[in-house]
Amino acid sequence: MLLYRPCEIFGKNDTSVSTLFVRAEEKDGKITAFVRLCDNDKECESESRDDEYERYPDGINIAKTVVGRAFCSCAESVYGFKSPFGIITGIRPAKLALSYLERGFSREEIRDIFANCYMMDTDKADVLTDIAQRERSLLHSLERDTFSLYISVPFCPTRCSYCSFVSYSTDRLLSMIPQYTERLIADIKRVSQVTRELGLSLYSVYVGGGTPSILSEEQIKQLLDCVNGSFDTSKMREFTFEAGRPDTVTYEKLRALRDGGVGRISLNTQTANDEVLRVVGRRHTFADYLERLSMARDVGFDSINTDLIAGLPTESLESFCESLDKVIDAGVENVTVHSLTLKKSSDLKTAGEFDLLREGIRVRNMLDYAGKKLKDEKYLPYYIYRQKNTVGNLENTGYARENKECLYNILMMEEFHSVFSAGAGAVSKLVSPDRQTIDRLFEQKYPYEYLAKEESGLDFDAVRCFYREHF
User: What is the dihedral of CA 280, 304, 188, 441, to 10 degrees?
Assistant: First the structure.
């Protein structure tokens, strides 16, 4: 049986012409794929076969897997680059490792499958398995009647050169914040109405952005009062506020967060190199970060996350390693290491100055150092995700000391239960108890669209319909 009809795909830009030929068929229980890849004067042919269906979790497309292996072999030969995750695509690679664990595969068996079937580097296979084991341990007792809440504050004081996130920094858009806060509070109350009706218990809250700490002290108090007054928080395990950029954080705001029930914050420097901070457009220094960190400790926060980005413009391997060392020395409980992603509309992407292969090697070396250093310092990986257009086809990984993980990050990324969202650009995820069915409900992307709509907020009918069908 022919699975992929023979086809050729042509690609052309100003400097090269590429062709790709793909064919796959099944015969006598064996799937065979043939791929030929040509790029100007370079050409490679590869054949891959697999008949061991039982080694794959339910739902995996075996034909695509075999074709992917043949393609990756050709691509490595033609372009001299091997993806560290092999043929694995998608943003949730730990989900695949978790599916194997839940089917009874051992750590060694999973490592072997990732390396031999999926062509993944062994160090990535090890990290994915570590993360899957930790996620299962952390959430093994999660009850089916729980949910998490995401609150979107998509505004920033300035836009970093690497960012194309739906966040806004012009004076006109920043002037919308008071009106936006009012609408956001109304939508949070709508979420509380439908979740109460469904008998759901709030498990975790995450206020993200953007830079939510761009809100004034009074606006922060209003927002937190709304959450605490609208939901039963007696079973809530975690309340995170993404304080974000040090230049927006004050002692008074931190006190408002702590008094409002927030137990975990993110305070992000991205690098300890002041010159790199200037180059990417951030209006703070590493000393500012340390000062705000000290304030947070004084207020009483004992669970603080810091983000670092591997691969920022002008940052050397040595500078990145020094940044990580300094953040660890500062004593934060949670470190998230991001690989630089060339977002479609970011200034960095549109400038077109990046050599993806060279930068990928540099970033990989940064991640290798981070993984080893953090492990030595007793930070363990607990969640991972990937994005399109990430340099080197690499990943973003969260590391935490024991019992300091961000549960929301796991719940959102691995889709263990429903996450209801409020605010512009927010996406609610409705997850069935068996985690096999997921529906997404989208809010208006831009703040001005969100405010212009006569009535925003959660679609009650869609939520009720989903819960009637799956619960």
Answer: 60
